[in-house]
Amino acid sequence: MTAPDRSVSPARSALRALLAGEALVGEDVGAAFVGAGEVLGEAALARRVREQGAVVVVAREPSPTLLRALRERPPALLVITGPELPVGLTSRVLGPAAQVMVEAGELVLVGPEAGALAGLRAAFVAAGVQPRLSLCPALAWLSEWLAAPELAGCRVAGMVPVASLHAGWARWAGTAGARQVVVPLGVEAPRIDQPRHPSLGQVAAAHALERLTGPVFPSPGVLALLLDAQSMSPGTGPSGHVAEGMSEEAASQAALWRQAQRALPLQADDPGMAAPHPGLRLRGPASATTDAFLAQRALLRRERAEALVRAAADEPTPVIDPAALARAEEVLRSAGQALSEHESKVVLRGFGIEVTRQAVAGSASGAAQFAEQIGFPVVLKAVSPDLRRKQELGAVVLDLTTSAAVRRAYATVVANVEERAPTAHLDGVLVAEQIGEGLEIHCGAVALQSGETALFGRALAGHHEVVLRLSPLDPAEAMLFAQAIVAGVPLRRKDDPGLRELAGLFLRLDALVRHFGVASVDSEGRLELVDLSPVRLCAGPRGYVTLDARIVQRAHLEGL
Fold this sequence. Notes:
alpha/beta; 6-stranded antiparallel β-sheet; globular
């Protein structure tokens, strides 16, 4: 057996040994391991590990003798095919109930458990695709293997439990592009209000896996069709036309497709779903049923995403004004852990993010004067780091159109805070322009457990999923991010801005994150949470305006 290469990581050493057929395999593992390797009895395996060491060991249920040898000389990878994992080992472990198959193809298949892996293998083999590596369960460290040069050029398909995901999966997904169709299983709503919550990195990785296709139904047949599908240029997609005199097989496929449209009417209403896509390689009537129908929806989303990436190729990066940036730095440095709305907007303005024109008043006459300068109508809000649900407390008054109305509203806001939140510290009353109607977005940035930062966003019209993207963003990623947020919003008005304005907001928000929040040797990053809620998209040169904002930074006592 070749000695491990000390210049590479243990993970890559294990992968090299596995692909090269240099694993030590217990004779009782049966069909759970398929590939080249030296098969040994229990006693011989323990002796070999103890005397010579090993890079990869495959065993079912290690005996006490073998366990002692493995603890004395831990391999780079221990594959356990039995139902339980041994304790007290420092090796990287694949298991329990692991299955590993090393073959001669150019496809990596990943399953959460043996049944799912078997279904994936059957679907891809039926499609004429030969795997290179098939394995389960899908564990967190697998992303290191997928990014390794030893698997360069391989396509990847499978399903991964969301608990196994982390930011490393997001980075790999960004480089793999359309060569991967990995479905995250068990995605729940991320806790964007809780910086460093474990769900944040997991969901950011899940959304990175879906960045081109959107969510994919976890059927082996869907994955096989989608990974093998060819995107088409604009104008060459499905037409829905059924030619007269078609073959019996084609007529059967058309009938099954129509039945799928009837059974799944919401999906059938999507543009491009009238007939099978020419880029889907249908194989027999069964392929034209649910699997092909669901694969086509993901393929059409992938085509739209690829078009957005091409369109964003020449988009410029945002230009930041140095004077405004210096002001933002000064405010953040002098502010407390939780910035007020006004302080937060000053920081945002430093990076060119559109915010409401506003000023903080300390008297009713001052509020009226500011309102006349800003222009009616205006909104009044209490300024206090201690208030969260201002509208419920009566600390927000809308639609003020005269100076007299502003004076009365000022007195109302102050009185409501004193009565309903007597312990809150009131720093004044904010006078801000009132923005016309438009689609509203909740977006921002939040720190992850890893020290990295993810941007998040969701449309507030209806119940839409929060979308996360790992920082940094380039113009193409910002465009995909914007598309993912507004894709499910129905009946948008013609005067709503396009994706470019929203993508520009995300690029500027990402610039803020990278300037203040990036991890370094001395700091995990300054920003814990940037919360813009809502941002209203509107017609005109501004494109959007941030109505409310809150920034939370790490405490100064932590070394800032």
